[in-house]
Amino acid sequence: MPAVFLRDRSFLRVTGAEAEAFLHNLITTDLASLGADEARPGALLTPQGKILFDFMIWRDGPGFLLETDAAQREGLLKRLTMYRLRAPVDFAVIETEGVTVAWGENAAESRKDSRFANAGITLTRTPGQHGDDAEALYQTLRIANGIALSGQDFALQDAFPHDVLMDLNGGLGFRKGCYVGQEVVSRMQHRGTARRRVVIVSGSADLPATGTELTADGKPIGTLGSIEGAKGLAIVRIDRAGEAIAAGTPILAADREVSLALPAWSGLSFPTQSDEASA
Question: Is the Cβ–Cβ distance between 202 and 214 less than 8 Å?
Answer without folding.
Answer: no
